[in-house]
Amino acid sequence: MKVKSPLEIYKYLPKTNCAECGYDTCMSFAANIIERKVKPADCPFMLEEKFKDKLMELEDLTSPEIKEVVIGVGKNAVTIGGDDVLFRHDLTFFNPTALAYDVWDTMPLDKLEERINTIKSYTKFYVGNFINLDMIAVRCVSNDPLRFKEVAEKAAETGLPLILVSFSPEVLRAALESIGNKRPLIYAATEENWQEIARLAKEFEVPVVLYSKDLATLQSLAVTFSEMGIQDLVLDPGTEPVGKGLQETFKRVIQLRRAAIEGGNKKVAYPIMVVPMTAWLIESDKLSTTYWETVVASVFIVKYADIMILHSLEPYEVMPLVILKTNIYTDPRKPVAVEGGLRTINSPDENSPVFITTNFALTYYTVESDLVSAGVDCYLLVIDTEGLGVEVSVAGGKLTASVIKETIEKEKVTEKINHNSIILPGLAARLQGELEMETGMKVLVGPVDSGRIPGWLEENWPPK
Hints:
By secondary structure, the chain is of the alpha/beta class.
């Protein structure tokens, strides 16, 4: 039974509160083990001989149910797997689904370079973070080992992790001899080629995908590779993109993950691969095919794909997938928040208004975007409400007159303006009187919708 609380972990620790681990107390250290910010062995006392048995037991109790597998090297390396729960709200999902977009070795050089650059340079700013694509899948279409190696080398220049896609051991070896030190994921071992693929995985020490639509065969392959000392495995139960085939694919993925987490079956406790680009095997027009690829990917980002291979780079497919992935892999126990403090919007001066908002990321970036796009020169005072929105933080006592006053003083707001006025969001109107008493400032109530701020300013600024 895995531990689920810091108190359970605390029982195994030395309870010295020595702070040598970097945390003030053993309980704090235990809480950070739960969050996977530290490991039990980061406690110096746990490395002593008398704690050896406890350390081994605690490492087993705190290790993820699904094995973590690292693909790639350096700052762009991707970690997949590592989940402990079937439902995000039970704890959280830790390592986001890795999205790999394909190139293939029969592409003309100019088209290849253009596609690689598109994958590498894709970025989307969303709720305070820049989202990028994770990996490149290099597919062998030519069956020419030399050509495949050249394309893999070109893709490796990006620094992104790679998936080398071929059922031919000869083709995979050619690429691995050149870029095996980049720790690519090799795809895939099957009933027919598993012996040769296993030799490659051991020789080059790279992770490997095991493929079979039959779950008994897939488990048998996993056991065989594990007994050979190959532990960095990814399971591909096959992806059929429509109709009955999609239903069966969904069942296989669910069965694998439930067997590993609920059933405790370590033989299949590995990351799962899904390949939505199989939608392109369907006889259909491009728009319909892209739609089905997006549908399949969306389904399995939620349940329970750890890594995917996709084809379409159309913005209307990529953007919803990266945003869905980001949303699913945020921690439901923690509101998404930005740092509190005073922001300058556009080019404010001493006569510019000061607006108040909370540090809930969605609220902050909505207000900031509205102010920037409208060309409003102002200050934006962001109150730390522990990531709660305006209305909720007022109701919950996180946005109060005293908290706002403290932030005003901390940020020295009155030294930056000459009008002694501040503007509350409309949903915090009930704080107006108390805030005026606390601060001695003139408190105005702005609109509920930040998109209406320009019109509100025309009627209410400068204050009369």
